[in-house]
Amino acid sequence: MASGTGMLLVYIFGWGIVFGTFVHYYHKRKAVALSKLEAWYPNHEERSIYYSLLALQKAQPSVVSNEVLKAALIRRAMTDIMRAVEVQANKATLPTLVKAGAMSEEFLHQFNAAEAELNAEMVSVVQEAERLQKGWGNGIMPAASEMINSSRLRELREEMLKHDFEAASCRRA
Length: 173
Prior knowledge:
This protein is an all-alpha fold. The chain has helices at 2-35, 45-59, 66-91, 93-100, 105-132, 140-172. It starts with a helix and ends with a helix.
């Protein structure tokens, strides 16, 4: 009877090793695949411009003023807000598409990574704004959002004027 119990323990231990090895390599392969995913937003030109201006200001302080840095940071914040709006618009539908099998799970992981990166980017913008001017960290995102809305309204007005002009010229002809 003791040898039967011993054989059972060896059998269970053996299967535990096989299963543990499988789980280890499965997760390792999955982690490698996730690390090779493309970035959702491959580049962030406004961030690059801001850091280039910041480096130039450190090298030659008289060349780049704080106002230029603030403008570049506002532009960076505007891009981040537009990306955040896009992420929020897609956030609810992507898990449904993955469950339905229309999208791969890797795509959802890529999206979640982009969302986390965007959140970190927005925190970085707020910190940079606070560093440039005390108290500005709380106001940069609302200011950038207002500038985006103003820009969109201007584009809509121009589009409406264009259509009005085209309609008027069609009536004359």
